[in-house]
Structure formats: C-alpha cells, structure tokens
Design a protein that fits this description.
Layout (H helix, E strand, L loop, with lengths): L13 H6 L4 H12 L3 H8 L8 H17 L2 H16 L2 E3 L6 E3 L3 H21 L6 H10 L1 H6 L11 H11 L7 H11 L21 H13 L3 H6 L6 H19 L3 H4 L2 H16 L1
Antiparallel strand pairs: 1-2
Length: 284
C-alpha cells in the first residue's frame, strides 16, 4: 500500500487549523513591521533584497514558501528549506554601527525572523476571533520548531511555548530600535506601489484586486496589531484604544473573508494537502 504523506504537520495539527485562516495575510504584514525593528536583520534585508523593485513578487514567493512548509509533502518542505538555506549561505551584510560584515544566516537573525513570524500568525488569528486555548497555543509554537529546523535552526534553541516567546521578546527588546532603514521599510510597507491586480499569498488562496485605499486600511490594521512596545519604538502611541480598534477591525475583516467561497479562500497547495489527508483517512 502506498504511503500517504501529509507533510510536516497534518490535519490534526494546530498549524493546519490556524493556517486555513485567510486573515493571516494581515499577520504577514505585521511580522514585517516587527522584523524591521532589528537593525542587523534589517540591514541583511536591505542589502540583499530587491523588495523595493519587486515587492509583490517577493511577497508571493515568501507566501509560497510558507504554504509549502505547511501544506506540502515532507520532501517538498525539505527541498524548499534546502533552497532557502543555500540562498542565505551566500549572503552577507555590513552592520551600520560597527562596520562588521556578517552572514545573514546567523542563528540569532534566523531565530528573530522565525519568532516574529509565528507569533504574528498566532496573535493576529486569535485577535481576529480564531479560538485557540492555551494548550493549542503552546502546541502551535512547538510544531513550528519543525519549520525552524528547515531554515537551519536547532529546534531546541527556538521558543516552543507562549511563555518562552514572551521571555524571548523581553530579552531581545534592548537590541531593537527604529533605524533609518526601518523607517523607510515601514513607509514602503504602508504605501507600496500596487499593481492593478494583486494576487494575495498562496497560503490564503485569494485573488483580489483591492484599490489603494483598501490596502492602506489593511496596512494600518497590521501596524496597530503590533505590541505596544513595538509601536512606541516607531514613535507611535502604545494606547490600549489602538489595540482595541485593531481588534475590532481585524475581526470584521476575518468575517468578510470567511464569507467568501471556499475556492477563493483555499490555495492549490492547501486543497492538495486536504485531498492527501482524506486519502489517508480512507486507507486507515
């Protein structure tokens, strides 16, 4: 009997439960705002990326990578991780403060990108109304250590519970600040050049062409979803009302997105993964 491969996570995982939510495209933006506050990580992106000239192409490639690690077969996920590790291995950047040249695949930088991404997915989804109890939250972080291993991190060095993520942020906050590159990136994320028809990430499976005003609203919501300490680093206010307003907006947006036909909400990788999972159930 042929073995059915449902990938790194599978239908019983919290990862599949969370990543079927189309609202996660807002989480992706939130994570980029947050990642930009790390000067060394931001230098690595600014000196090696063409995001200003191919912003949407880069966004779609990143979404494809996440979709592959979440919904691809084990072999597909491992190949995607290998390609990313090989790409990062060739890249270096210069620290603007010390003048030191460093490799962008340093574990500290990879860990920062990983934690900010998965925490953004989780925080955004919960604030949008996705119900996850404390045990499921910790399970999600633990599951995502498998994704961290794909980029070259030792899983045991990656926060695996909500408490460990909170402690990680507490320890790293003194290293964060708004640099010129962070400010320029935040501005670019808030008002990027929009194509006439924007294909949203494959992980959410949407094909929409929002006008500029709609994107500005989404970007503003993503920024408002940042932790209060991150908004303060950007020079904004860390008022509770800001977070409350963001919660209301992201909940309304999730309701609108989940009302769309399923074929619009699910990408091909997600549908293929569900078909494999159904086959696994039939064979059991």
């Amino acid at each position: 009997m042929e073995t059915v491969d449902v990938g790194l996570f599978g239908p019983d995982s919290v990862t599949w439960k969370l990543h079927e939510e189309p609202i996660l495209f807002v989480a992706g933006l939130r994570s980029l705002y947050l990642q930009a506050l790390h000067p060394r990580a931001m230098a690595g992106v600014a000196q090696n990326s063409n995001y200003r000239h191919d912003a949407w192409g880069r966004l779609i490639r990143t979404a494809d990578y996440v979709g592959t690690t979440v919904y691809g077969t084990t072999a597909e996920a491992e190949r995607a991780g290998l390609r990313l590790r090989r790409l990062h291995a060739r890249m270096t950047a210069v620290d603007a403060t010390s003048g030191e040249r460093f490799r962008i695949n340093e574990p500290d930088l990879l860990r920062w990108v990983h934690v900010t991404e998965v925490e953004s997915f989780l925080d955004t989804a919960r604030r949008a109304g996705v119900r996850l109890d404390a045990a499921e939250v910790d399970r999600y972080y633990a599951e995502q250590r498998r994704a961290a291993a794909l980029v070259g991190l030792a899983p045991e060095t990656v926060p695996g519970t909500a408490g460990e993520v909170a402690e990680y942020y507490r320890l790293i906050r003194p290293e964060l600040r708004m640099t010129r590159e962070a400010a320029e990136t935040a501005l670019f994320l808030s008002v990027p050049p929009l194509p006439w028809k924007l294909s949203l990430p494959a992980r959410v499976g949407l094909n929409l062409g929002p006008p500029r005003w709609a994107y500005l609203g989404v970007a503003a919501t993503a920024f408002a979803l940042l932790p209060a300490w991150a908004r303060r680093l950007y020079g904004g206010l860390g008022l509770p009302t800001t977070a409350l307003s963001a919660d209301v907006t992201v909940r309304a947006l999730r309701l609108a997105l989940t009302a769309l036909p399923r074929d619009w909400r699910e990408g091909p990788m997600q549908r293929a993964a569900k078909e494999r999972a159904a086959q696994l159930t039939e064979n059991s």
